[in-house]
Amino acid sequence: MKPGPILTGGCLCGRVRYRAEATPVDVQFCHCRLCQRAQGAAFAIWFSVPAAALEIVQGEPTWFSSSPFARRGFCGDCGSPLFFVYDANDMPGVSIASLDDPAAVEPQSHWGIESLQPWLAFADNLPHRCTDDDPEFRAATAVGTG
Asked: Which of 22, 66, 108, 132 is the most buried (most CB within 10 A)?
């Protein structure tokens, strides 16, 4: 398999830097309430890559368990959100806003639209999905609830 593009990024203060060599998948605007609160914004924009393709090249992110099924990596100094990882998944999400070149990755969908703010409108015609419609999300949130 041919390696994907090399994407680099990091936090606002530069303490944490990463490199990913993979073709981004599941590139999405996330409107869920957890992302809104974690980002301090109306939405987050994430892409996923295989965990083996993501390398922290400088510093270490601080991790916060934001729910019973996922954790978020951020810079412990400046607070920049960097990563989102489902515990039951090997495809970490990376914040597009933390890329050195955010234009290198183009969103493909909107997710968590049940929390889309009514004053926010997009003219992009991308697919919209609710969290309940996503089998991966349902599987991740079912972990440990048995």
From this structure: 22
